[in-house]
Amino acid sequence: MKKLIVALMLVAFAASTALAADVVTYAKDCKKGAVTFNHAMHGEKVVGSCANAACHGDAAPAKIAVDKKTAHKDLCKTCHKGNAGPTKCGGCHIK
Ligand code: HEC
Ligand code: HEC
């Protein structure tokens, strides 16, 4: 029984760290360069709270699916435009 509890705790720990990774790298093979998204910085400095309508909405924070459209328009760039984040290719894609 003890072993089972320890195993469950390890699984829960691994899951929580995977969901809240501090830094996520996108577009690793992009010719323009990879995009390093600093999740911790965005959460603490930029938004102040996970449950921000711009990011996770009112639902329990979960991993957000990012594709080219989300990145270049809907989510990332839209917020950057209004909040002095990078909007030029080289501001996000670093070679
Ligand atoms: C707000 C940050 C941001 C800006 C500004 C931005 N990009 Fe991106 N771009 C991303 C992210 C994040 C992805 C990865 C999306 C994904 O994982 O599907 C991406 C993906 C791409 C891809 C596809 C790469 C692949 O491997 O599929 C290309 C090409 C690209 N961007 C080119 C550009 C160009 C050209 C510009 C300037 C006109 C630009 N990006 C501006 C964040 C940005
Ligand atoms: C709720 C608003 C908001 C959203 C959504 C957002 N960003 Fe940002 N981001 C910012 C702001 C504001 C800054 C500038 C922070 C600063 O310089 O202090 C920034 C900075 C950045 C930077 C450069 C600074 C650094 O060192 O990390 C990158 C790269 C970046 N964002 C990528 C992304 C990507 C990729 C996404 C989408 C997955 C995204 N951001 C979504 C507000 C946002």
Can you say what the CATH homologous superfamily is? Cytochrome C3
Strand order of the largest sheet: 1-2-3
- Report the major sheet: 3 strands, antiparallel
Strand-residue fraction?
5-15%
Instruction: Tell me, briefly, the overall form.
Output: globular
Unique ligands: heme C
Structure, briefly:
This protein is mainly alpha-helical. Helix content is 47%, strand content 12%.
Protein architecture, described:
The structure is a single chain. The N and C termini lie far apart (50 Å). The protein is globular. It has a single domain (22-94), classed as Cytochrome C3 (Alpha-Beta Complex). 47% of the residues lie in helices and 12% in strands. With 95 residues, the chain is mainly alpha-helical. Strand 1 and strand 2 form a beta hairpin. The mean pLDDT is 81. It has a three-stranded antiparallel beta sheet with strand order 1-2-3. The protein has helices spanning 2-19, 39-47, 68-74, 76-82, 89-92; strands at 23-26, 34-38, 93-94. It binds heme C (2 copies).
Notable traits:
95 residues; mainly alpha; Cytochrome C3; binds heme C
Draw up the topology in text:
Layout: H1 2-19, E1 23-26, E2 34-38, H2 39-47, H3 68-74, H4 76-82, H5 89-92, E3 93-94
Antiparallel strand pairs: 1-2, 2-3
Helix pairs in contact: 3-4
